[in-house]
Design a protein that fits this description.
49 residues; three-stranded mixed sheet; elongated; mainly beta; two-stranded antiparallel ribbon
Length: 49
C-alpha cells in the first residue's frame, strides 16, 4: 500500500508528533502489509527513573 495513513498523538488539545520522533507501523496479519503508521509517546526525562 503506497498511501498509508499516519496518526498523531492528541496532546493538550492539539495533534502532535511524539517528542522523540519515533514511529510504529501497524501490519495486517493476513497479508503482512503495513497499512498505517502512528506516532509514539514517551515519558519526559524528569519522569524517568
Amino acid at each position: 500500500m503506497t498511501n498509508q495513513p499516519h496518526y498523531q498523538l492528541f496532546i493538550d488539545g492539539q495533534w502532535r508528533e511524539g517528542s522523540d520522533a519515533q514511529v510504529m507501523h501497524s501490519t495486517n496479519p493476513a497479508t503482512g502489509e503495513h497499512w498505517a503508521s502512528f506516532a509514539c509517546a514517551s515519558l519526559p526525562t524528569w519522569m524517568q527513573q
